[in-house]
Specification:
The chain has two helices and four strands, in the order βαββαβ. It is α+β, with helices and mostly antiparallel strands. The chain has a single domain, classed as Alpha-Beta Plaits (2-Layer Sandwich), CATH 3.30.70. Strands 2-3-1-4 form a four-stranded antiparallel beta sheet, covered by helices on one side. The mean pLDDT is about 95. It comes from Tannerella sp. oral taxon BU063 isolate Cell 6/7/9.
């Protein structure tokens, strides 16, 4: 199983609206994909000092890289870029693909 993880850093001025946008627009759109599951939204507690903002992490499970890349090309990149377009310089984000490993 793979986890697609995106961190968003919103300015203090846009944090509440940004969080609402993720909850009401981005996550529901991602949740419509039949192969994605375990959507999560988490606030990052330890912020960089003087960052003038707050960060959240969005993550969801994907079966494989091929499925993820197909989604990114079809609509995922556009959904993520819509956040940047809406908030401009008031948001920064990056995504990471993680592979879950066995504990032993």
């Amino acid at each position: 199983m793979l986890v697609f993880y995106t961190t968003f850093h919103f300015s203090n001025q846009t944090y509440e609206d940004g969080l609402n946008y993720l909850r009401t627009t981005l996550l529901p759109a991602i949740g419509q994909h039949p192969e994605f599951h375990t959507l999560r939204l988490q606030r990052i507690l330890h912020e960089v000092e003087d960052s003038n903002g707050r960060s959240v992490s969005m993550q969801f499970c994907v079966p494989d890289e091929t499925t993820l890349h197909r989604w990114l090309e079809a609509s995922g990149d556009e959904l993520l870029q819509a956040v940047a377009k809406r908030y401009g310089t008031e948001v920064a984000y990056f995504s990471t693909l993680l592979e879950e490993l066995a504990l032993q």
